[in-house]
Amino acid sequence: MPIVNIKVTREGSAPGRSAVTAEEKALLIKGVSQLLLDVLHKPLDSTFVVIDEVEMENWGWGGLPAEAFRAQRAAEKK
Amino acid sequence: MPIVNIKVTREGSAPGRSAVTAEEKALLIKGVSQLLLDVLHKPLDSTFVVIDEVEMENWGWGGLPAEAFRAQRAAEKK
Amino acid sequence: MPIVNIKVTREGSAPGRSAVTAEEKALLIKGVSQLLLDVLHKPLDSTFVVIDEVEMENWGWGGLPAEAFRAQRAAEKK
Amino acid sequence: MPIVNIKVTREGSAPGRSAVTAEEKALLIKGVSQLLLDVLHKPLDSTFVVIDEVEMENWGWGGLPAEAFRAQRAAEKK
Amino acid sequence: MPIVNIKVTREGSAPGRSAVTAEEKALLIKGVSQLLLDVLHKPLDSTFVVIDEVEMENWGWGGLPAEAFRAQRAAEKK
Amino acid sequence: MPIVNIKVTREGSAPGRSAVTAEEKALLIKGVSQLLLDVLHKPLDSTFVVIDEVEMENWGWGGLPAEAFRAQRAAEKK
């Protein structure tokens, strides 16, 4: 009876996209449910998955909002 | 000092509704707070309730997005 | 397909008890599942409930660990 | 590797504002990440922060939706 | 920067085991992190995974504690 | 009415300690409650804090259990 919660930033995975697509969400749901079946023998229909999309400004890493942190990291690598 | 989190899909409970209504939310808040008072003697004003409404495509069950899972179940029952 | 999470402090509801009992947990599970059936017409077997018991020192209220906060409140009422 | 989740109601902190501002969110992210560095020596870049803004009608306290609870409290203090 | 939370009951996946093993946990962590890389191109080192093991009596399904629900289901299938 | 959840690995912050101490927890509770008062003007007694301590083997980063990930990082820095 697993419950899986996946939190990601609300952004596209490729240029021209501004959010996770329905197809990508379906792949996440399928993949993680299958993983629980493979590893722990949990039947597919006993697994719930909830995906939360979080606005970029609501996500922090490195003491900074996510976009500022990414910019800082990119600058460090130069 | 309980904290209750209720996650439901964002959909109406009757035809013509597309979301949980404010009245239904108030009933959930009242009911679960009363339950914690009745069972564990928690004072009403020490209970927090947060309701999350989750888009249908962000909810997975049976390895599928919720709508596809419901369609599959309905087909199986025929 | 609701998911309910109930967080309570790990303590007894009556003198001589140091934790929530299995009977109390069963009442919480039954009560909140029934509430979701009554208010939102969610079938019982589509509701998952998870109860988290949190150590007293891991719970904060009023800027203080829970026990210190309760002592402060009790002192204020005198 | 801490994960911090901060849930607040979606409302402004001053008249004329209807939501938490990006500046306030940045201050929350910075402050809580610094706190984990100060208290537990967690490096800034190992801390994730997620802020959830919750609609007023989805938040319950005292067995009531948040606005009704605040109105009740304000009336009691008169 | 995904955060994945996996909640499962504290029980073994095979006779003679009473809990999820460290190896099984490592497989869950590896599998779901890889899934986020494959589907959303999230670098492995930006994904956090937290596994919660929940006592059987703290998990509810079908309005019943998990063990009672399983027994009921098994009886129905006969 | 904020709710703050802080998840950290169950380990000591200094040699000879195997867990977060009660004093450190009290500092986290005090600090984050004060932060919400300073930034969003939330009264101290409307903020709940819950600290979750997670076993090292239940925490994943970089596709690995936390300890393996740390060892890998340390080796890379050499």
UniProtKB/TrEMBL annotation, chains A, B, C, D, E, F:
Record domain 4-oxalocrotonate tautomerase-like: where: 2-65
GO-annotated molecular function: isomerase activity
EC number: 5.3.2.6
InterPro entries: 4-OT-like_dom, Tautomerase/MIF_sf
The entry's keywords: Isomerase
Family stated for the protein in its record: Belongs to the 4-oxalocrotonate tautomerase family.
Name of the protein this chain belongs to: 4-oxalocrotonate tautomerase
Phylogenetic placement of the source organism: Bacteria, Pseudomonadati, Pseudomonadota, Gammaproteobacteria, Lysobacterales
